[in-house]
Design a protein that fits this description.
Shape: globular
CATH topology of the largest domain: Neurolysin, domain 3
Distance between the termini: 60 Å
Structural class: mainly alpha
Number of helices: 20
Low-confidence stretches: none
CATH architecture of the largest domain: Orthogonal Bundle
Helix content: 55-70%
Radius of gyration: 23 Å
Oligomer: single chain
Number of strands: 3
């Protein structure tokens, strides 16, 4: 007979209530992005703000501090203590913010994201800035309050929401090292690839055919369509809850690879969500460990697996089936297309070699922006200077493909961007561990045995959720905490060996 834990059990019931409200919020957010008519935005923003305020009141319940303290004295097992640790963290961060700020943030971001959908295609930076300034002001206010609560720098306090324990000091060191080797690597890879150019696909590629292809590939990658779906939005994302995962992508008729690889990326997120431990659902310990770990799953699918010759071999017949046979779809040529390295404007379409440059650029702008060292009006000139420095691209006057291209800033997701490159580093680390531990790993991937990747991720990442700290999760999965050298080794091996 187990020893009673009444206080802990009451806290768990409280968390389950929060989870169910969060379920509703996530589906409403998905609908806002994928289905909502334009004139519904103001009412939707008000409804979301009301829901955010309700959830904030639950998170900041004045009785929780005492109940958490009393639960710590109960005879909890290891998993319950991990769950209590996550409860304490959530309560601590929530109590840094007043309910009024939570409501204002939701209203401001809903309005700004809605406006961004039309301002970006119009290349209207000036109009965007006016809509965005309230969002930025609220983000700076939130950063100051979280910094006071946590003792962190303002930007670090925002980043801590997504990546617990990560600091700008660590990022400066890690990204500083990447800056040392990345430009030369890009130059060498582009030079090498210039001698073996792929055959270009002949379009157009009908959107309905792309949609059918992407649905096939999502199923091939193990996504459960009985527990999720895929739709279209202005910016691809994965949301929902493990029981009902909502993914989106976007299509263009002149090329198919951005939609295909973007879909593979979101499927990595979706598989993580669908495979978090169901017996823990509703509790903080069941949540994804961090955004870098989440991005390591999408990049394990898109970059690590998607860039493997075995993936191109599996995709080739599907492309021929949906678009008709053509020389560009031959496996070797398709692999060259997928792994082609080009200096480009758009982050989400970037190859894995140039991708870190896009992230470093955003980090080096948003950190001083939140700290108050620069203002919104300074961004275009800084953006262009850093694009010239890192990728040798002139972006002057091109705002839609420059600082307007991402939804993150309209949604006040400051501190999120670094997680993408940290995720790429973790993904390289996971695959290095797989190669050490799985016999004939690359040969089996070459034969289309993708399940060996999924099984490893399920055992080491998906099933562990937030049971461990990020460092401990990485050590248990791969034998070491984050080691950025794995990314450099991976890129050098794939593109220069």
């Amino acid at each position: 007979m187990s020893t009673p834990t009444p206080t802990y059990d009451a806290l768990a019931a409280h968390q389950l209530q929060l989870h169910r409200f969060g379920h509703v919020a996530s589906i409403v957010h998905w609908d806002q992005a994928a289905n909502m008519p334009p004139k519904g935005n103001e009412a939707r923003a008000a409804a979301l703000a009301e829901l955010a305020a309700l959830m904030h009141r639950l998170r900041t319940d004045k009785t929780l501090a005492d109940r958490i303290a009393r639960a710590e004295q109960e005879p909890l097992d290891e998993l319950q203590r991990a769950n209590l640790r996550e409860m304490r963290r959530d309560w601590h961060l929530a109590n840094a913010l007043p309910e009024s700020l939570v409501q204002r943030r939701q209203m401001a971001t809903s309005r700004c994201e809605h406006a961004w959908r039309t301002l970006r295609p119009a290349n209207d930076w000036a109009g965007f800035v006016e809509t965005w300034k309230p969002v930025l002001a609220i983000a700076r206010e939130e950063a100051a309050l979280l910094a006071a609560q946590t003792g962190l720098a303002k930007y670090d306090a925002l980043m801590d929401r997504f990546e617990p324990g990560m600091t700008s000091a660590t990022l400066d060191r890690v990204f500083g090292e990447v800056r040392q080797w990345l430009p030369g690597l890009i130059d060498r890879v582009i030079d090498r690839q210039s001698r073996d150019k792929p055959v270009e696909p002949t379009g157009p590629f009908a959107i309905e055919k792309q949609r059918a292809l992407c649905q096939r590939i999502v199923g091939l990658l193990g996504f459960d369509f009985d527990a999720g779906r895929m739709d279209v939005s202005a910016h691809p994302f994965c949301g929902g809850v493990p029981e009902d995962v909502r993914m989106t992508t976007r299509y263009r008729e002149d090329e198919f690879l951005p939609a295909l690889m973007g879909t593979v990326h979101e499927t990595g997120h979706g598989r993580y969500e669908q495979n978090r431990p169901r017996e823990w659902l509703g509790q903080p310990v069941s949540e994804a460990r961090s955004m870098a770990i989440h991005e390591s799953q999408s990049l394990s699918f898109e970059m690590q697996l998607g860039g493997h010759p075995g993936f191109a071999r599996a995709m080739a017949p599907l492309l021929a089936e949906h678009f008709g046979a053509q020389p560009a779809f031959e496996p070797a040529n398709l692999h060259r297309l997928i792994t082609r390295v080009q200096r480009g404007l758009i982050r989400v379409d970037a190859d894995e070699v140039t991708y870190p440059a896009h992230i470093i650029l955003r980090y080096e702008i948003e950190r001083p922006l939140i700290e108050g060292e620069i203002q919104a009006e300074d961004i275009p000139a800084l953006w262009d200077a850093k694009m010239r420095e890192l990728l040798h691209i002139d972006t002057r006057g091109n705002f839609k493909d420059g600082p307007l291209q991402d939804v993150h800033w309209p949604e006040a997701l400051f501190g999120y961007f670094p997680c993408y490159s940290l995720g790429a580093m973790y993904a390289a680390q996971w695959f290095a561990a797989m190669r050490r531990g799985i016999a004939e790993f690359d040969a089996r991937i070459g034969r289309g045995e993708f399940t060996i990747v999924f099984d490893w991720l399920r055992e080491n990442i998906w099933s562990q959720a937030s049971r461990w700290s990020t460092d401990e999760l990485a050590r248990r999965a791969s034998g070491e905490a984050l080691e950025p050298a794995h990314l450099h080794a991976h890129l050098s091996s794939r593109y220069l060996a």
